[in-house]
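Sequence only, no structure available. Ideas?
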Amino acid sequence: MIKHIVGLSTLLLFVGCGGPSVDRSDSLVVIDAGHGGHDCGALCDSKKEKDLVLQITKKLKREFKSEGYKVYLTRNRDRFLTLGQRTRIADRKDAKVFISIHANAISDQSRFDKVEGVETYFLQKTKDEKSQRIAARENASVLKGTDRLSQEVIIDAVLNGPKIIQSHKLAIDVQNHIMKHLNSEYADVKNGGVRPAPFYVLVGASRPSILVEVGYITNSKERERLFTSDYQEEIAEGIVEGVNRYLDNRKKEIGF
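Reply:
I predicted one. Tokens follow.
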């Protein structure tokens, strides 16, 4: 009898702590490391955005796989991909979500150490000047030769429907969990929040898609942290927990 009671107590404790791991083998995540090749992205003190985001995406891949996900990286080495190549991969692979990783920067050197924070973006037009400015910088390398009217048509074609709503929900969950992880070790990390912006790397994928700006490479404090393995790991774990939360809620919404 005692053995049965102990066994039952152990089972209840196990279930209370979350129970068996959720089977996520039917979920594939496509992770996009921004820039690459001739496109270095933001550059400060010889530190390159393209190198940083590739390091983080490789950690993300390990974290997602440890949770049972299938994972595909748009690039796993230093090479440049066009906008179309990045988003077509997510659709061709039938990914549950598409996540593009970037690092932020500003041009005003007098404000380098004043501007900081983690931000998560979803595709949407906005009148917010900061969001427009950041999107313009990230879009520059993939939109060379594309006139403004064509750019507007591209965005207008995808701004309606459930993808935008679900991308917004995904962005909220990911941003919240990134901040939870970072703040557990670094109390002064600024929460830049969830923002809409016309990032063209999010246009082509017909599924929930977000872009994470993991910090400002122009800020000396954040730059030092961003290039450390522990800080990158906290970011990766936060993103994975955010995706877990989003997909679990999504399953409840659609009833399975």
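Strands lie at 28-33, 43-44, 47-48, 70-73, 97-104, 118-123, 191-197, 209-216.
Hope that gets you unstuck.
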